[in-house]
Every structure is written in structure tokens, then in C-alpha cells.
Amino acid sequence: GATHTAYVMEHTIDQLARKAGQDPVAYRRALYAKAGASRHLAALDLAVEKAGPTASDGWTRGVAVHESFGSVVAQIAEVRLVDGAPRVGRVVTAIDCGTAVSPDQIAAQMEGGTCYGLSATLYGEVSLTDGVVDQSNFDTYRVLRRGEAPNVEPHIVPSAAPPSGVGEPGTPVIGPAVANA
Known about the structure:
By secondary structure, the protein is α+β, with helices and mostly antiparallel strands. It contains 5 helices and 6 strands; from the N terminus they run H-H-H-E-E-E-H-E-E-E-H.
């Protein structure tokens, strides 16, 4: 349930921040500080630091943070509309997965998970005709193409905690990060 839970919770947090007239990052920081969620705060802070102070010209930013499989991932997505459709150009990712046993593998998992989640966010639709699924393979099921993939910048939060999951935690956060942008 990580993907739909992350989407609902993170988009709701953004809406609450906006309703309160607060910056979504500052709002999350206050929530995490109050809850003692130091791993969430560390991941968010690293993503914000690596993203820099402002989005590229013509782009807007969205943020999301989610814990799944024992890891906490924060993402900042830079998005703009192209012909009325969202285009994601850059995604800064920070993961607290405990001790980073294989940093290159962690980076690859964050990149792949982000693109997988973005594919579902932008194109994930399965239709039925007379009770039969219309999509039988990737020629009829739309997925993210190479030229549409964003520049994913993975960063690892330093930790001495035991290693945790890296296979799927990059997937749930991209949808709400894009929606929040």
C-alpha cells in the first residue's frame, strides 16, 4: 500500500500547508520535528540542500517524503506543463536506508523506482472491454519512454543504522511530488 498511501498523505500535507499559508517544506519540517521523526527530517533536509534554493527557470517544484520497507525517501520534483501535460525534468532524491552497503546499487534503485513510479503517475491506466483487459504488452500499455525520463539525482543520508530496503522506496514518492508541483 505504499504508493497510494504516500500519494494521499503527501498530497494532503501539501494542501494543509498551502491552506495554512506555509511553505510545504517548512510545514513538513515542523511536523517531523514535533513527531521526533529525525530520519524523515534528515532525508528532507538533504533533498532540499541538494536541490538548491530555486527551481530552474520555467519549472515549479513539488516535494514528498515517505517511509516504506524500512527506508525514508524524500523527493523534490521539478515539473512544467508542455502542451498541457506535466513534464518532469529533474528529481532530487534523498534516501535514509541505514548503512549503505552498495551505494551504486542504491542510486540505480532510486533512479529506476522513480521512473517506474513516474510511468504509473503519468500513464498508468488499464482499460477493459467486455471484461477483458485491452492492454496485453508494452505496445498497448503506455510507459515512460527514455526521452521522457527525468534527470534523477540520488543522494544517501549517512547512517550507521542497519541496512533497510532500497528496491521499492523510490517508487511511492514521485507521484505526490509531481502532483504537489
